[in-house]
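Researcher: I'd like a candidate sequence for this fold, 162 residues long. If you have to choose between options at a position, lean toward the conservative one.
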């Protein structure tokens, strides 16, 4: 009887996984609802424009149900504790890129994202990763803007190549 009691204590529902399952179910419902509003009037094909969104919504619903069942039974592995410092470095890099993209341009904003993300992963000092990130981002900008003729935000560094 004591073994049965200890098994019940170990198999508590995983709340984080239940929240993820609920989010997947909501996303599935939104896709179903939006797909239903597309309308297929005048379509003569068996597979119309709503077939794949319905398939994706159905797959998300199945994944949601499976995630909820595994979470309820406690079958997910125990997760390690999060360390806030690396997360803050990466989120700070994303925020800096979003804020600086139009002002500083693609190369500088994405180079800052690269450097702060590298710092979050514990790689290299900022004085080294920042120029590497800006150089790689400038090369990517040149490929997309000059060779592929796509529009990316240009800042002072990119204007040197225009």
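Model: Candidate sequence:
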């Amino acid at each position: 009887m004591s073994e049965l009691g200890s098994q019940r204590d170990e198999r508590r529902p995983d709340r984080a996984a239940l929240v993820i399952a609920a989010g997947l179910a909501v996303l599935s419902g939104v896709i179903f609802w939006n797909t239903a509003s597309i309308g297929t009037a005048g379509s003569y094909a068996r597979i119309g424009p709503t077939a794949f969104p319905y398939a994706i919504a159905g797959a998300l619903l199945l994944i949601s149900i499976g995630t909820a069942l595994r979470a309820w039974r406690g079958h997910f592995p125990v997760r390690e504790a999060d360390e806030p410092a690396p997360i803050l470095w990466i989120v700070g890099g994303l925020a800096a890129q979003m804020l600086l993209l139009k002002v500083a341009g693609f190369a500088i904003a994405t180079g800052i994202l690269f450097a702060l993300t590298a710092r979050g992963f514990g790689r290299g000092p900022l004085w080294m990763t920042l120029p590497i990130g800006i150089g790689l981002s400038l090369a990517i900008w040149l490929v997309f803007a000059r060779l592929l003729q796509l529009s990316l935000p240009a800042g002072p560094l990119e204007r040197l190549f225009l």
